[in-house]
Amino acid sequence: METAAKPNHIGRKIGRIRELRGMKQETLAEELGISQQAVSKIEQSEHIEDDKLNQIAKVLGVTKEGIENFSDENILNIISNTFTSNDNSTINAINVQPNFNPLDKVIELYERLLKSEQEKIAYLEKLMKEK
Question: Are 61 and 107 found together in one domain?
Answer without folding.
Answer: no
